[in-house]
Amino acid sequence: MANPVERAAGSKPVESAETRLRLRNRSRETPRRRLVADRLARWLVSAGGIAIIASILGILIFILIEVLPLLFPAKVTAVRRVAVPDAGRIGALLADEHRTHVATLGEHGFARVVRLDDGKEVYNSDVLAAPANPADPAATKPVLVGMTVPAQSRAFAAATSDGRVLVKKMEFSVTFQGSDRVVTPDMTPPVFLELDPEHHPLGPFAAQIDEQGAATAAAMLTSGKLAVVRRATEKNEMTGETSESLSRAEVAVPGKVTAMVVDPQQRNLYAGTASGEILWWPLEGAQPGALKVANAGAPVTALNLLLGGKSLAVGQQNGALSVWFAVRQPDDSQRLERIHEFSRQPGAVRLIAPSQRDKSFLAASGNQLGLFYSTADRTLWTGAAPLGDLTAMFYSPKADGAFVAGAEKVAELAIHNPHPEVTFRALFGKVWYEGYSEPQYVWQSSGASNDLEPKLSLVPLMAGTLKGTFYSLLLAIPLGVFGAMYTSQFMHPAYKRYLKPVIEIMASLPSVVLGFLAGLWLAPRIERAVPALALAIVVLPLAVLLTGFLWNALPRAFRGRFPVGTEVFLFIVALAAGIWVCIGLSRGFEKLAFAGDFQSWLLKATGLGFDQRNAVVVGLAMGFAVIPIIFAIAEDAFSNVPQNLVAGSLALGADRWQTVTRVVLPTASPGIFSGVMIGFGRAVGETMIVLMATGNTPIMSWNPFNGFRTLSANIAVEIPEAPQGGSLYRTLFLAGLLLFAITFIVNTVAELVRQRLRERYSQL
After folding, report:
1. pLDDT tens for residues 252-278?
2. Domain 75-171+196-237+249-444 carries which CATH code?
3. Cα–Cα distance measured from residue 152 to residue 361, given in angstroms and rounded to the nearest whole number
4. How far apart are CA 435 and CA 484, in angstroms?
5. Which residue among 399, 462, 463, 604 is least packed, with the fewest CB closer than 10 Å?
6. What is the sign, positive or negative, of the torsion defined by CA atoms of 586, 588, 589, 595?
7. How wide is the angle at C-alpha 404 spanned by C-alphas 402 and 407, nearest 5°?
8. Which CATH class is domain 458-761?
9. What is the per-residue burial (b if ≥16 Cβ within 10 Å, else e) of 613-649?
């Protein structure tokens, strides 16, 4: 029988102490589990954020590591000295590409090859062993009165006291005995060319020989005239026999010649005079053509041709050092002009040794050496010469070293000069390149041969990046923003549920597919439909406005039968009809406005060309790719505007359009601006569309009907051909760094503007 207390409590059971304790423990355990889960989630989110930041910083650091070597200066250090006994005055130097052997030509007429490791002489040949007159063995042996190394060749050239010029090839063959490299000097006998039939000593001279043995020599005679001799060789392909022919010419020279050089192709002869003039004769065989004269100012003391034989390095008595090349004039003639100029040297420039890999060259002035790069007007290094009274100089074939001679000694220099062509001016300024009539912005990383100057201006690529971005956003911003506005504020919700996902799915289309379609399908059609596009700019807005006016003119009772937002289908029909009208009138409009051919009219009327793959095609294709991004973010911004603001505006008597433009649009502007900036970043970094839908021509032009090349597309095109660690390789990383910086700056500015807009309209 229940006690009175239990009866008073009714049928509700009384909890035992054990039950209360279990419930209390459970209430204590649940918050602890939640706390652990919260902490774990916070750690995971923080770790993910830190990992993202670390990854971005790691990428940035890696790019900086690859770019920084472009800023390092060149280094020239003396390595060793080798004595060449009994050489007398060394007038010419050559070395093999591995810098293991050096060949010298001395005033006594002996060509010697010395192994640098131990200083042992491994070859010695008297190049003047043959008498001056083979019919008279008792004739006096001549001596050398001048020695040189022909420009960009592996040969010795010398003028003799009996009026001849000898040219001796001095190449090195490399073989391997096991793992040991064996370098063997060439024993080819010299070629003699007689310039003075009276056998008087020659004055300043120049010579050149090619791989087939054809040689040209020019020298000043005691009579004051210039003599040119050409030795041509022809090989009979049927019999294999080689025949030789000699031709000779003499011309008068205005002034006293002090230096002379023949280009590697044996087509041009240059000379410098004591009065400071540079003389230029085109050569037709041995016959000099019409003389062209350029005034350099001070007396010319040294001449040499740089790689390619087009740029002429000129040293002068007053220490001036410059580079000249032919520039085409308006009358289609050519004239030598001073293009690149370097800092004044401490004394007269006596020796110039060009590189065989690039446009670098060494110049000796007194006891000072300098390393220079022609294209960028760049002084790479200056320092004291390792030997006094230099008499000869040679830049090694791999451009990693040089040799200087003086007082029967040869000194070796090690040169570290990996990126001479990269300077701020070369990357972002105008440069005057060989073959151009004026300084220009040019990107041309490679050419048909290594003789061409690398042109690494990033300005055309930056202009192309901005051009592609501009034309794509010109389409994407209006369609994306106004489409989002209509979808959020005017479209019926039943249709919005289908339309928004479809547009957002557009963002998932691969850019390579869009580029493929734009380049192969869209570009040919745009080429034929440019007049239709011009018509569409006028016809389509008029069609929309006219359709809207007619819709509003209908009775309200009739319009009320249709759900709000269904008028969009009427506008779709109107746009389709407008497009059909534009295509139908295209041919007639082209005849009326563009004389029947738009491309010809464009060229004649404006001077602008028309490329099939152009900025219009890229703007349509890339705009199609950017629209979903801008639309999605802008639509969310419109939809997130508080409905009480909309309701309040409508309640105060504003119509729907006034509410959207004066209340909703300002309030949503921070989100819209963010969407536009994200679309801008997408367009700047786009690669495949611009790679496939443009001609990839790095030109500076805002013409919508020609192609361009962007920074990102250039990286994709060039990186497979860029040797690791080379100038092009590091310049491409610099282009990536520029993209990184542009994106960072744009995002930072966008965030500042977004915060400002948010603060401004937060009080609405």
Report:
1. 999 899 999 999 999 999 999 999 999
2. 2.130.10.10
3. 12
4. 53
5. 604
6. positive
7. 160
8. mainly alpha
9. bbbbbbbbbbbbbbbbbbbbbbbbbbbebeeeebeeb
